[in-house]
Amino acid sequence: MTYSEFKRLYQITTVKLRYGLDEFLPDDPRVKAPKMARKSLFWIKNQHADKPLGVRLRLALQELGPVWIKFGQMMSTRRDLFPPHIADQLAMLQDQVAPFDGKLAKQQMEQSLGGPLETWFDDFDETPLASASIAQVHTATLKSDGRKVVLKVIRPDILPVIQADIKLMYRMARILSRALPEARRLRPVEVVREYEKTLLDELNLMREAANGIQLRRNFEDSEMLYVPEVYTDLSSERLLVMERIYGIQVSDVDALVANGTDLKLLSENAVNIFFTQVFRDSFFHADMHPGNIFVARENPENPQWIALDCGIVGTLNREDKRYLAENLLAFFNRDYRKVAELHVDSGWVPKDTNIDDFEFAIRTVCEPIFEKPLAEISFGHVLLNLFNTARRFNMEVQPQLVLLQKTLLYVEGLGRQLYPQLDLWDTAKPFLEDWMSRQVGPQAVIDGVKSRAPFWAEKLPELPELLYDSLRQGNALNQRIDTLYDNFMDSRRDQSLARFYFGIGATLVVCSAILFSNHIETYPAVSAVTGVTFWLLGWRACRK
């Protein structure tokens, strides 16, 4: 471990101790040794004992920087896993991170635009509208047409902080992989690499702009989801200019209720939007924490979601989508044999896994869960129990599914926060069944023909020429095969003749040696010369 990495690790440890986060350690005999080691090496006392534990956790994560803030944002959506006094504080990390100076933000914006803000904007507000871990947002008015916009700017000097934490995470992941054979199943290095890519992508706002444009096009004229317009001519890698929206933040349940919002429909739409993005578009918003999600005030009886901050998106290939859908459907139907077989077929567990044992292990974990009403089952708990079971069968973490798993937990957390009786299973199952029927049923054949029809229509006039070329090439190929066969047979004859000559030559040489040992004159020399002659003939036959 380098000095800089050790220094950062020490800094992380001291921050956590300064805020008294060691209180999260359970009162368990197994953690006595770590507690004693902590008291021996770190004589740092809790300097914020007057603050509640949730506040201390939020402040510590905020001080540690964007990597840890992102972690806190993810935890904030799991209100079924954390008590309100923790989840409420972590929710403040979504858009209430300490801002940096508005004058510095304006200076960075002008550097990106190449001139004074007043050239393009009126009414620029130096007080940020929102401040998050990677960037903060200011409001303004377009000088050209008076439309209200927001300007998002990257925090200054944030890259070295992210790189330092990621480097340390790589170091710890490699140590875990070497020290604990069981940790290799989790593929910690690959997971860190995926997380690094996600964070670094967020630093390029033109990537976020492209993602937003794609997502907006996918849901154009949709009643379920709205994505604000991006002004690409004013945007750059470190500045994003987009339409300002006036919705209700999804975490403000009281305001949604006061607006008459149908919370049940809103939460069900969240599930439908997620599965539509994953299975229809293969392109999903992967950072759906409450700070990025709003609800339109219009039409509360048919509420529309508004998605912001498209810096993190996920994609799945066709094979992953197929296996995922089949796994979920088999799970909904309690077909544990199918779940076990799919895990093996997809390569998520080794091919030599005993299917019967794996099925029984899954059944043992899942059947008690399904005894409860579906609306009370947490998908997060099911995933956790399923992964713990699969760990015994050497299941490897799939890095391409990490974002999907995280986003699905976000969606469930949001849905349960809005409508605690949300039945995620009942909402998702019809969607998945319809999607699977279109993938493997008659409709799949029709869709396949439709998608390939333009290509076939383009190639149809060329069909006679393609057929003629194919026949000509086939004829030429047959001629080449005949020639190769003739050459092969000639070579075999030459090799047989060469072996015959070598055999005669060897016999004559041996006879020459026998005659010479018996003191017979003349004949040994003649036999030897004849034998060598046959060897030369055999060598010549081999060279043909």
Instruction: State mean pLDDT (0 to 100 scale).
Output: 79
Helix % is 55-70%
Count of individual beta strands = 11
Overall spatial form? elongated
In percent terms, what proportion of residues is strand?
Answer: 5-15%
Radius of gyration: 35 Å
Span of the ends, CA to CA = 65 Å
Structural class by SSE content: alpha+beta
Compute the number of structural domains. 4
- Number of distinct helices: 20
Q: Profile the largest sheet.
A: 5 strands, antiparallel
Low-confidence spans: pLDDT under 50, at least 5 residues? none
Could you characterize what this model shows?
With about 550 residues, the chain is of the alpha+beta class. The chain is built from 20 helices and 11 strands. The chain folds into 4 domains: about 5-90, no CATH class; about 100-260; about 260-440, no CATH class; about 480-544. It has helices at about 5-20, 30-40, 55-65, 65-75, 85-90, 100-115, 160-180, 190-200, 205-220, 255-260, 265-280, 320-330, 335-345, 355-370, 380-390, 400-420, 425-440, 440-460, 465-515, 525-544, and strands spanning about 120, 130, 135-140, 150-155, 225, 240-245, 250, 285, 295, 305, 315. The strands form 3 sheets. Strands 1, 2, 3, 4 and 6 form a 5-stranded antiparallel sheet that branches. Strands 5-10-9-7 form a 4-stranded mixed sheet. The chain has a two-stranded antiparallel sheet with strand order 8-11. It is elongated, with a radius of gyration of 35 Å.
